[in-house]
Amino acid sequence: MVCIAAFIILALIGIFVAGISIFKPHVGKAYLKAMKKAWGCLSKKVRLQKCETGFKEDIKNTLLSKIMLKHPKLVRPLSVLIEVLSVVIVIVTIWAILTAIKSLLALWALGSCNVTKPSACTLGSEICSIDESEPQNPLEAAGRWFTEWGEIFEAIPDKFKSYNPDDYNFNYIDASGNNTDEAPAAIDIFDPLCSVCMISYRNQKAAGFFDKYNVRLVPFAIQDAEGNYKFKNSEIIVRYMFAVEQIRSGLSLLIIDRIFTDKNSEGISYQDRFLNDYSKKDAINKIESWLIEAGFDEDSMAEVHKIVDFPEITDKMTENKSIIENQLKVRGIPTMIFDGKKHTGLWKSE
Q: In terms of C-beta distances under 8 Å and separation of at least 24 residues, what long-range contacts does 112-119 make, across chains too?
């Protein structure tokens, strides 16, 4: 292990030696000589051959030469320590390489280099992530590390899959408007209080996305592994959207349009108010005030109040959650399906 660890260390310091050797050529020559020996030892290890013991002893002697003269009794324990440190260096290097490979594969297959917390990866798409629970102890962390490999390999075939909106039995809000039946179908999964979803929605409206496709809007309140909602008031908004849709088809679009595109008299976006300022009661009052403005009378409002808490609404939300997380294996939203592809992250106009 000493010669392998030496190769790793020499490889890491090579860039610094290259700079120093410009002014001190003898340093570069000494480095190349040591690197050549280390490479030779490593190549033999890869072929399951025995390394030259001379190189191993050279490394030890170089490190212990001064101690050997002044404190000979320390040579043996330090020699053992070098062996142990060599094993640690090799293990850490292998782990780092595997982790780098895993992160790159996850970024390609899942859109994020962090499988457990997708939004923590700065290289991934702009998303509101669906996070998994963090490991509570080293044993769980080790198990989670291997589980992530399985999730990545399971997701790889999806990169080459053709997606059809009709294959997913979502409970949705029809946003097709006056589009003809010939317009291609599209699915748009969003959380009403996800800021990236808001920007995507605005981009889609500006680019005519809803005119080009028969869009099925799927409101989804993100939950963590413990069932807690990621954003305050997301659940009640989704419930009202489904309840209103049962009474007057298409009117639930007014709710999401107001949240995503409108501001109050102080110039603050309603999404910001729902997310940061409104209590649950405030959120309900604001939604109901919009419905009354849209023509809902007392009887209609009473019907909405009954439907909002119906088990059927809960079932619709649960069914959508299962499709999103288990069938589509979505790690973040917004997620859209159109033109045979699944697109996760901020939708940008072409």
A: 112/331, 112/332, 115/148, 115/151, 115/152, 115/331, 116/144, 116/148, 118/331, 118/332, 119/332
